[in-house]
Design a protein that fits this description.
Chain lengths: 112, 113
């Protein structure tokens, strides 16, 4: 079983619609990182969450950390074609500051 | 800032050959990470350094893999001998502090025939 599971694995939404991607850890979360990747390119850092209940926003993307549930969600409001890509969550399960494991990713397509 | 620089961007080699991947972290960053990404296994951490010292290499798959960081501005990942199952995209990332945001390079796409 995966230590870090993302859902859904893929998502197709109409431009302008809201969406949520979830990331669930089987172990204690000491830090949770969200990245975006375009095919054939490197990962782009989006947000880092370290405290239970923490919520961060950047433009139309909001991420929350539920420490008790060992879960994080990424919410995109009014999606645009520029939001398309693969979203990956990375978790620090060892409190070692840097040793991350990553989920399998959620592939997002936004139809204009 | 130029960001994390990796070379080469693409490498095609034959089984049994030695492969060396190179990484230049962002200036001033103290931590450096090597990852491998495949369709089957996703993104996996291979090894990471802090202040040029290897901290955790438990993700290195076999003795065929080795990594060095001779100074703060350069690191190499070497595979010797290479095998077809090593085909993947290898990413280097750096961060200012351990636990801080990691900035990824564009990756090296390795194909071993």
């Amino acid at each position: 079983s995966q230590e870090l599971e993302q859902s859904p694995q893929s998502l197709i939404v109409q431009e302008g619609k809201n969406l949520t991607i979830n990331c669930t850890s089987s172990k204690t979360l000491y830090g949770l990182y969200w990245y975006k990747q375009k095919y054939g390119e490197g990962l782009i850092f989006l947000m880092m969450l370290q405290k239970g209940g923490e919520e961060k926003s950047h433009e139309k993307i909001t991420a929350k950390l539920d420490e008790k549930k060992q879960q994080s969600s990424l919410h995109i409001t009014a999606s645009q074609p520029s939001h398309a890509g693969i979203y990956l969550c990375g978790a620090d399960n060892n409190n070692q500051g840097g040793k991350l494991i990553f989920g399998q990713g959620t592939e997002l397509s936004v139809k204009p | 800032d130029a960001g994390v620089i990796q070379s080469p961007r693409h490498e095609v080699t034959e089984m049994g050959q030695e492969v060396t991947l190179r990484c230049k972290p962002i200036s001033g960053h103290n931590s450096l990470f090597w990852y491998r990404q495949t369709m089957m296994r996703g993104l996996e951490l291979l090894i990471y350094f802090n202040n040029n010292v290897p901290i955790d290499d438990s993700g290195m798959p076999e003795d065929r893999f080795s990594a060095k960081m001779p100074n703060a501005s350069f690191s190499t990942l070497k595979i010797q001998p290479s095998e077809p199952r090593d085909s993947a995209v290898y990413f280097c990332a750096s961060s200012f502090l351990l636990g801080g945001e990691q900035f990824f390079g564009p990756g090296t796409r390795l194909t071993v025939l």
